[in-house]
Amino acid sequence: MTIFDTKGTGVAFTVSPASVTLGTNGSTTVTVTMTATKAASRGNHQAWLNIGTGGAVAHAAVYTLVK
């Protein structure tokens, strides 16, 4: 799993665990965490979470708003 194409400054997204292995029809839970510095720019911050090996099988947008 990777998080990429983060927009904005002072904000970072991480995913944990960074890697999982699933069997047929398997499922799991992952946690996406956002951290921001005090100097984070105001406004929209977004990135993409890609899930897959050698290419995305699924993806999701991750987003936060700094006021």
In words, what does this structure look like?
The chain has 67 residues and is mainly beta. It has one domain (2-21, 30-66). 0% of the residues lie in helices and 54% in strands. The chain has no helices and five strands. The protein has strands at 2-7, 11-16, 31-36, 43-51, 58-66. The protein has a three-stranded antiparallel β-sheet, with no helix packed on it. Strands 2-3 form a two-stranded antiparallel sheet. Strand 4 and strand 5 form a beta hairpin. The relative contact order is 0.34. The model has no long low-confidence stretch (mean pLDDT 90).
Number of helices: 0
What are the secondary-structure elements, in order, as H or E?
Answer: EEEEE
Strand content: over 45%
Low-confidence stretches: none
Helix content: under 10%
Q: If you average the pLDDT, what whole number results? A: 90
Shape: elongated
Strand order of the largest sheet: 1-4-5
Overall number of structural domains: 1
Derived structural class: mainly beta
How far is the N terminus from the C terminus?
A: 29 Å
Instruction: Provide the gyration radius in Å.
Output: 14 Å
Biggest sheet descriptor: 3 strands, antiparallel
The total beta strand count reads 5
